[in-house]
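Aim 2 progress update. The chain analyzed this quarter is reproduced below.
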Amino acid sequence: MKVRLTGLHKIMFLLMSALLVTILLNSCNAGISPTGTTAPLTGEPSTTTKATSIATITEATTTALPTPTPTPLILVAPFETNAPNTTYQPVSADQTRAPGTITQTAYSVAILTDKLISPWAITTLPDGRFVITEKAGTLRIMTADGTLSEPIDGFPEVDDRGQGGLLDVVLSPDYETSRMLYFTLAERTEQGSLTAVGRGRLSDDETIVENFEIIWRAIPYFDNSAHFGSRLAFDRDGNLFVTTGERADLSTRPNAQLLDNGYGKVVHITPDGDPVPGNPFIGVDGALPEIYSYGHRNVQGLAIHPETGEVFIAEMGPRGGDELNIILAGGNYGWPTISYGIEYSGEPIPGGITVMEGMEQPVYYWDPVLAPGGMTFYTSGVIAEWQGNLFIGGLGSQHVSRLVLENSRVVAEEWLLADQGQRFRDVCEGQDGALYTVTDGGLLYRIG
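Predicted structure tokens:
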């Protein structure tokens, strides 16, 4: 029997045909990697296209498509292929050298500026611009198109030797009304230097940080130029987590295990610099009440999980043994008693042990090192497969590490921008859903 197609039937038929073609095209494109070739299921990870000029570099050759459903996680061989520095074995198989993965969504990479001078931290303003610290003691504001402000002053003298200087910056939770910014810095004095937390108001004309004041110091002072940490993050209650380092000297290293000083600690303070009520060492004889955890070496990465509120840190180990940790109130994270690394000389850390009762194990560790800088959780839906992933700037490793987490464990790792030859100091998420990262060489990259 023949069925006559009315005008309505024909329209419906054409619509269904178009839908079928779209589904088939999307299915074909699902296997396209960011470089425009079929993503491998096994074997060596792919690499990115090397950037050669400002704002003209493109890593993706395909057009990004909407992602209505989660992109499957494709696992490949681990990115790390170099031999470890030690023969230490992890406590659990997922504690190091996770399987590799490759971003399936197309994205581009561009250099927005090469005019920064030793940038150390970057964070996003509510209007989509960025504030960036430079370690010599100035602040810069930059627009998304690469327009850079003149240096902004207003800070006390910083010790910018070595690893010191003007370090991290975060916005006060009430920034839109208060214009308050919080910083960490290596404060220089006649007694030596130390990690300090300060705050000041960005002037209405954005030419100076007004009324800067120090609200907390990681005592005591010490005269060297290393292991200041440090990062800042506001928690859900509007209080600050702050990380420090143990100042690198063999004489100061043991202070990481002592509670009477600010070396090698994560501290929890109010916006005025006071201990947060309920801190674990309040009332403990001889302990600084600001301390939240201890036994850290040099913590330059800090981020709070956007869903669970867990406090993640990334800290530099010695030769091997960089760590990703989840911070527990009162936790002892072991340094220098336990470590998955060795001395730079090749000798074991005294004791040469990786596990001890009463000391926390890292969630994940790197050997060889990542040399982790700043880090951020990705929350945007622009690249859906990145949601909830942790991105960490790699200094000595010269790449940005993407960590895929499940139940707070690392299930995959990807290296981004590994062909750029840059030390990635900090990374943040922009209002546009892209990632932005600054390098020690003065570059600002956009990834997205």
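Helices lie at 7-29, 175-178. The chain has two helices and 25 strands. These observations will guide the mutagenesis experiments scheduled for the next reporting period.
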